[in-house]
């Protein structure tokens, strides 16, 4: 399998964590978002939206969208499971993950920021405020959803942790205060000591700059 990736993409970061948790070998091919490589026609043939990550299977079939890729990996190698066995906890873990992937991440991703700058003339300080607003509001909701034990929904990492840690990375990158999020900070502490999360962090990737 081949993962089309960018070291600082939080969506790709999620998939790298899942790959590491599953102890799978996946070839990585970086797509440099700031250089516009995602708009190359060859890559757009793989990812019609021109986003990362994209997973190419050994038979050539393609899967886009980080949560769809993670779901495939979980089905491909069921152990360790990425959702709790209890159906309510599993649904709650999904809800936390979707809050991040659907409610926080899209509002601060590169395509949206470029549109705010290029089409609406937003200044750098306005962009910074925009990012801080939506990340802080979203993480406040996640704070209320999780119950560290020590991970977001139990003794082992789940889909919620896989989505949360890249978003916390972005929060720190964009100077969003986490003082009001003690549960998130507790989960972060547990995750940053876990080998899979260490392996997947942006600074550890071959294309890191």
Give the SSE map:
Blueprint: E1 2-5, H1 10-22, E2 27-30, H2 41-44, E3 54-56, E4 62-64, H3 66-76, H4 87-104, H5 110-118, H6 124-145, H7 159-173, H8 182-192, H9 195-200
Parallel strand pairs: 1-2
Antiparallel strand pairs: 1-3, 3-4
What's the number of extended β-strand segments?
4
- Give the CA-based shape: globular
- Broad structural category: alpha+beta
Number of helices: 9
Order of helices and strands: EHEHEEHHHHHHH
* Domain count: 2
CATH topology (fold) name of the largest domain: Glutathione S-transferase Yfyf (Class Pi), Chain A, domain 2
Q: Regarding quaternary structure, how should these chains be classified?
A: single chain
CATH architecture descriptor text of the largest domain: Up-down Bundle
Mean pLDDT: 97
First-residue to last-residue Cα separation: 25 Å
CATH class of the largest domain: Mainly Alpha
Estimate the helix proportion, in percent.
Answer: 40-55%
Low-confidence stretches: none
Key terms:
isomerase; Glutaredoxin; Thioredoxin-like_sf; 4 strands; maleylacetoacetate isomerase activity; single chain; Glutathione S-transferase Yfyf (Class Pi), Chain A, domain 2; 209 residues; alpha+beta; four-stranded mixed β-sheet; Maleylacetoacetate isomerase
């Amino acid at each position: 399998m081949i993962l089309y990736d960018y070291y600082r993409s939080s969506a790709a970061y999620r998939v790298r964590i899942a790959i590491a948790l599953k102890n799978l070998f996946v070839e990585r091919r970086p797509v440099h978002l700031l250089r516009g490589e995602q708009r190359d026609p060859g890559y757009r043939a793989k990812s019609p939206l021109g986003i990362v990550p994209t997973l190419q299977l050994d038979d050539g079939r393609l899967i886009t969208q980080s949560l769809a890729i993670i779901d495939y990996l979980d089905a491909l190698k069921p152990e360790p499971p990425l959702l709790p066995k209890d159906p309510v906890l599993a649904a709650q873990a999904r809800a936390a993950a979707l809050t991040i992937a659907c409610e926080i991440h899209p509002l601060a991703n590169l395509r949206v920021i470029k549109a705010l700058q290029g089409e609406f003339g937003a200044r750098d300080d306005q962009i910074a405020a925009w990012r801080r607003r939506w990340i802080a509001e979203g993480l406040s909701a996640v704070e209320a959803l999780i119950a560290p034990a020590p991970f977001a929904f139990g003794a082992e990492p789940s889909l919620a942790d896989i989505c949360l840690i890249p978003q916390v990375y972005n929060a720190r990158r964009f100077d969003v205060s986490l003082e009001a999020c003690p549960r998130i900070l507790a989960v972060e502490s547990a995750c940053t000591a876990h080998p899979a999360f260490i392996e997947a962090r942006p600074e550890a990737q071959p294309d890191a700059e």
